[in-house]
Amino acid sequence: MTAVELTRFKAARRDDLLAARPAMLADFAADRKGFRSARLVQLANDEWLDIVEWETSEDYAASSAKGPNLPGIAAFFAAIDSLVVAEEGVLSPFA
């Protein structure tokens, strides 16, 4: 089943965050086994929700263990002020 990473964070530097996003996605596609897609949602009060789909829960765990190992990923993470919550779920077959 498809694993879903839900990460809510604060980032006041909107322009920096959005400028770093394409390189982060390219690095994920090149370096993260099982990466399927990612959607970024802007919420109120400088909060954001990143919804990332992985082929398996193991792929998500392996990605998390790598951290910001490439420049595009590091630049995106650097634009984040603080983590609010990170959760993992499974995509419903009835989505």
Automatic annotation (TrEMBL):
Organism domain of life: Bacteria
InterPro entries: Dimeric_a/b-barrel
Protein name (Swiss-Prot/TrEMBL): ABM domain-containing protein
Species this chain originates from: Kribbella italica
